Amino acid sequence: MLTALGLESNVEAVYRLLLAQPAWGLSQIAEHLNLPERAVRDALDDLSDLRLLHPASGEGQFLTVSPEIGLGLLLNKMALDVGAKQRQLDTARSSVTALISQFGRQSHAPEVVQQLFGLDAVRLRLQQLAETAHTECLSFFPGGAQRPEALESSKPLDQLALERGVTLRTMYQDSFRNDPATHEYVRWLATLGGESRTAPSLPMLMVIVDREVALVPIDPADGQQGALEVRSRGVVEALHALFSQYWDSGMPWHEHDGPDAVGLSRRDRELLYLLASGNTDEAIGKKLGVSLRTVRRTVSSLMVRLDARSRFEAGVLAARAGWLS
What we know:
Elements (H helix, E strand, L loop, with lengths): L8 H12 L5 H8 L3 H13 L3 E3 L6 E3 L2 H37 L9 E5 L1 H14 L3 E6 L6 H16 L3 E7 L6 H12 L3 E5 L6 E4 L3 E5 L8 E5 L2 H17 L1 E2 L13 H11 L4 H8 L3 H15 L4 H10 L5
Parallel strand pairs: 4-5, 5-6
Antiparallel strand pairs: 1-2, 3-9, 4-7, 6-10, 7-8, 8-9
Helix pairs in contact: 1-3, 2-3, 6-7, 9-12, 10-11, 11-12
């Protein structure tokens, strides 16, 4: 009944039970609801993310937030989100109406967004943009590494662009550092003046050319569908700012991700942040570009370091230790 507020059936059942039996611990909750303890732990993690639950001082005890406060805040947030979306819709409708009124009958008016269906159409458009770039080409490459033949085929265009004085900057995920073909390509590009950095995770595949046009996936979860070619100045500027933010905090390719003062790598911190944000192991692996086995091994190691018995407790202890800062 509370799905619209983000509470799935198991999560709602645990919340209702803790409201009725606030002194119950994990095993009692699992037995009463006939759920595995792992499912109860996941539900507790979700309740913590929704600010409906806090760890109590007693071991294995939980402090629930009253429905009046906790659910009231969720309702208010939902109402604010709906109101904001409605205002955005009204503003967009007014802008569209004005544009149609001014340019709707002009057959020569340029398209702000064009759809490129399929990978072949995207590759062809990227080649055209690379051949005509004047100042810069910025790229995000999340997910899996490119095939060696794809990297080799891009070299002639990259070299010609750099010789014309075009700035080439590419952001990869940290996981790309383990790919020999990418490593060789980045070293070759650096000899010509190309720059490459990495981050633990990237939001999506993206290419920005001359601060005038951007290519982004039609569906970020399925790059096979194709891309959107965007020429809206406001949207391109926003995407350029997003790239700059990641670039400024990225690690140059020639540097290495060693442990910091508390022994955590950048990937460890990103994993902890994703864990505390309620992401599943599968989602974390996809966002970091690593295998599910690597995620589970790292989570297990971090839980041992934190002396945590659950993901929920690991998030709490990591926050208290300042590891999520």
